[in-house]
UniProtKB/TrEMBL annotation:
Domain of life: Eukaryota
Cited PANTHER family: DUF4283 DOMAIN-CONTAINING PROTEIN, GLYCINE-RICH CELL WALL STRUCTURAL PROTEIN 1.8-LIKE
Domain Zinc knuckle CX2CX4HX4C: from-to ranges: 216-262
Protein name in UniProt: DUF4283 domain-containing protein
Domain DUF4283: 78-156
Pfam families (UniProt xref): DUF4283 (PF14111), protein_MS5 (PF04776), zf-CCHC_4 (PF14392)
InterPro entries registered for this protein in UniProt: At4g02000-like, DUF4283, MS5, Zn_knuckle_CX2CX4HX4C
Residues spanning the signal sequence: none
Length: 400
């Protein structure tokens, strides 16, 4: 008696089967040379049979489950005071930590609870209507420097629910001859559906930009600039985005980092781009410096070491204890968590310092999250300690 185990795997992509045949007979029996041959002659028929059998099956054949229309199965009242949201970059945004952190950022601790609905979707249920309204008014919000979409719960959400977000943008370099509300509206329309232009032509305007509120489609990239044709020349209009900290610096989308940009990967496959080895580039620069005899070829000529105070030179001490930081609050400034998100350059500073010491093995550590930042300066600021962040020279102590 022949004993066989047949493993059949159907590929949806190419519509074919991969079949593996295993002989389950004891190994001490005489080899059966005709076993694989006999099966191979029927493999095609078996594949056809399995293909037809799978094609006859359908998930739609099963009736959908219907739950009773009862408060025991459905949430009614709580949803009226709740927000639904979506993390735009869940690779860099921990759902669990976000739900723990946001009530603190919103200053509603104890008056709201979060619910993780999926890997990127969540809900916050508020006790007070005024808290919910304040959170909506101060959008957009972000976690770990990446934006999230927030909308009020709706019993009948639109098809693109949690796809669009409300943004305030800044428009710069509008020519004087075109400084009108119509021009501002048209330029803001390049970013999204315009809700408001913060400009009154009847009063003085003191900012070097125009603010506009738009509804932005998060499936699209941001725009950094837009060419505007005017009589005699072409002007470059610049766009800035308030409260948007991180984005892909290649395609300008809000959903991934540059290192994971699908457009870069696609370009690497189609154009066969060669990524330069940083060590190789340094060696090339050193060889070029030696060959030209220029000792300062890759040095900033404006840098003057003598202008740096001795306070900022030499080895750095270890991390200070919480007691030491509290005793000398004028010397040290412990950056609060809210300011870590407002000053996105701190994240960049931490990444640069880490990557410098990581010996180019970066993928295993991404994404990095700031934990705590302490700033130390030579000067003692008697007004506000937070001004240390704006000092000309400073020492940063960072945990991540």
């Amino acid at each position: 008696m022949n004993s066989l185990k047949i493993v059949a795997e159907y590929s949806v992509i190419n519509g074919s089967f991969s079949i593996i045949t295993l002989d389950l007979l004891p190994k001490n029996l005489p080899p059966r040379r005709n076993l694989a041959y006999c099966f191979s002659t029927t493999a095609e028929n078996m594949a056809d049979f399995l293909h037809k059998a799978i094609g006859a099956l359908s998930l739609d054949d099963e009736e959908p489950l219907v739950l009773p229309d009862s408060p025991q199965y459905r949430v009614f009242d709580e949803n009226e005071k709740s927000l639904l949201g979506r993390l735009l970059n869940p690779e860099c945004q921990s759902m669990e930590r976000m739900i723990d952190y946001m009530p603190t950022a919103w200053r509603v601790q104890g008056r709201v609870r979060g619910i993780a609905l999926s890997r990127d979707r969540f809900q916050f249920v508020f006790q007070r209507e005024e808290d919910l309204a304040t959170v909506l008014k101060d959008r957009p919000w972000s976690y770990n420097h990446w934006a999230m979409v927030l909308e009020r719960w709706s019993s009948f959400p639109p098809e693109n629910f949690l796809q669009n977000m409300s943004l305030w943008i800044r428009i710069r370099h509008i020519p004087a001859d075109f400084f009108t509300v119509k021009t501002m509206f048209r330029l803001a329309s390049e970013i999204g559906e315009v809700e408001e232009i913060a400009y009154d032509p009847e009063v003085s305007h003191t900012k070097d930009y125009i603010r506009a509120q738009v509804i932005f489609d998060t499936t699209k990239p941001l725009k950094a600039t837009r060419k505007l044709s005017t009589p005699g020349k072409v002007v470059t209009i610049e766009f800035e985005y308030e409260k948007i900290h991180k984005r892909c610096f290649h395609c300008l989308r809000l959903t991934h980092e540059k290192i994971r940009c699908p457009m870069l990967r696609k370009g690497a496959q189609t154009e066969r781009r060669v990524l330069l080895d940083p060590v190789e580039e340094v060696e090339k620069a050193q060889s070029k410096r030696i060959a030209t005899g220029d000792k300062h070829l890759d040095v900033d000529h404006d840098w003057d070491e003598s202008t740096v105070h001795q306070f900022y030179k030499g080895p750095l001490p270890k991390w200070y204890s919480d007691q030491a930081l509290e005793r000398d609050s004028k010397k040290y400034y412990v950056v609060p968590e809210s300011e870590l998100h407002d000053n996105d350059w701190l994240q960049l500073l931490m990444e640069v310092a880490f990557f410098y010491k990581a010996d180019r093995c970066l993928d295993a550590y991404l994404p990095l999250e700031l934990n705590k930042v302490v700033v130390e300066t030579l000067e003692d600021y008697t007004t506000e300690a937070r001004e240390k962040l704006k000092a000309d020279n400073e020492i940063f102590y960072i945990t991540y």
